[in-house]
Amino acid sequence: MTEAARQLLREDEQQIQALLAALRHGGRFVILVADETTWPEAKKLLEHELCPPPLHEVPLATGEEVMRMFASPEATRAGTLVLHVGSDAAAAIAALNLHRDKLRKQRGRFVLRLDGPHVHRQFAHEAPDGYSFRDALAIVDGRAAVEVVRRVPARVSQIQEALKEEKGDAEQLLQLATELFKLAHLGEARRALDRGIALLRAKKHLSPEDLVVLAMSLHLSATFLTPEEQPRRLRDALHVLEPVRDRVEDIYGTILGDLRDGRNSDIDAVREALALAVEYRDDTPQAQRQRLNLAFTLWYREDIQGASAELAQVASRPWASTVNRFRGRLLEAEILLSKGHWTESEQHLRAMLIASAADDLKDVTSMLMLRLASLTFWRGELEQALETLSPSFISDVDPLRMRIRCSRGDAEAIASLMEPLGPWHHAPSHEHERNRIRAKIDAIRAAVEAGLLDGRRGEQLDAELEALAAQVSEVAPEDPPWSRIHAALLFADDFLGRSGAEDRARAEAEGALTLARRGAPELIPPCVHRLGVAALRLGTVDELPSLFEEALSAAEERHLPGDAARIRGLDLWRIIQVGGDVASAERALDASIARTGSVLVEAEVLSRTGRGTGRRDLLERSRRIYRALPWPEREGLCLEAMGMKTHALKRYEAAGLRLAALALERRTAPPPVDACFTPLPSGASL
Predict the structure, then answer these.
(1) DSSP-derived pairing of the beta strands 29-33 and 136-139
(2) Is CATH 3.40.50.2000 the right assignment for the domain spanning 3-139?
């Protein structure tokens, strides 16, 4: 084998190693995409890692062959069975989809080998349930992706030299920025765009060609803004392009499509953006980017099944650019995380980290380090999380590092909590500053409860929050009202974290709901969620049915299945409290959870509802999920609510969560039910 061939297989081997890890950690059904040219080498690696016993391969083309396979001795004994599905096997695909449960009930493990990208696309389309049922996916395509990695640093150096020499050609700056963007050198791309935009803005008269370049530069620069800031930049681009719109209808349509995309639009508009991309600009990079936008939007809305289906369509074709490749693989890791496959998600992230370092992609590398650190922190691997963060330089690191250090009881970190919170930054671009404030509030409350901070720090915090509320009321804009709503929900969450402050939490949530009704309907469900928790804790539930109906309608209209599941959980709590049709409420809750496809949403909703109602069966279901991930901090809350305080303490101590352990020892009753949920990272920003 030549050196080039060995380089070529390196990425393929990483994919197979992730698949093997899933099998070693209890996975029963994995998918391997490999045609006749790549299967022999892949098979050798599988046999080497999995033997004994040897692999047994079964070709499947019809439904009868699938049923015979399930009844065969090979399927009923320990071992690994390779199910080979080639082209012209629609009947076998349908049978595997229908009988997917059998794949987990047999003693053996199953590797479904799909014969190349075409069969992969067919299986994902015709067997979506079976496809999402997998524990892992590996695509062994034999493409020379590593050759691209080799060329990237050299090409980036050439572009950097060209940027130094370029003085006044905005079109050339746009071309160089576009290439840097595709190579995922995002910081340099943004600076080149800013230079070109400034050059054109300074000109007194713009030719039609200048207008097109300016609009395209504004369009690409919107990628680097927050979701709240992007619409204004895109409208600016459309305004610039209006005088020459009839000449460049394709570009106008593309920008219009992106304007209708984003987390604050309804899902139909996001799908329309994809249709516009295909209609006006039917080239692979643009259509692929829009489909990734749609997949990320579905994931952000916690529609994991929908995101998986969209990503499968994208991943079945070659990546059109480096940034698309990283975005797609990041989303695959996030979907695995949402489905509870944390080990496999971590392996995906680490493989991406190696590739981004090889490409010298500092922006991507930092973001991946942050995500890995979050995951390892949740798993209770605090030292590893801190080691992962140490070389990173992005601003979001500081809140996470503080949380980790405080969680393990670090004296220096606890002492830093005596410093004031600082001002509220209402600009969307300062989201990381608001995250820092939220993390610090939580850490102060936890440290006071654990006895590591003087109780007077909690009183000082109350005064600081009052000052923050006054500042937000004075300076935060009402249109759009997002910053005011986020601030009100922050205060509501803090009040819900304490017993006896339900009235104040409800007042904050009601104020946020009023603003959401005026100009941010996508935030109606989280506002009602806080209101509902406060009302249920107080036992004042008369207004809740109409509020829940409003929130469910908003969640349906804005395609927010995760929020819908949270509201259904509160409705079950209400019905148990007032004595209604519990069975119907349970069915509605189970259906809403299933619609998300996320075990994280499932565990969160079951935990909150179980803690609120005292239902031990719901708490046990949630605890089992957190145990399997593992997420010791969340599992400990379930154990404490179930009256198993000693077991909770052992989980905290084993994970090094000293702050949680000390607080647990001092508590005489479980903490009050809150409205906090699993945070989602902004992976779509890549």
Answers:
(1) parallel
(2) no
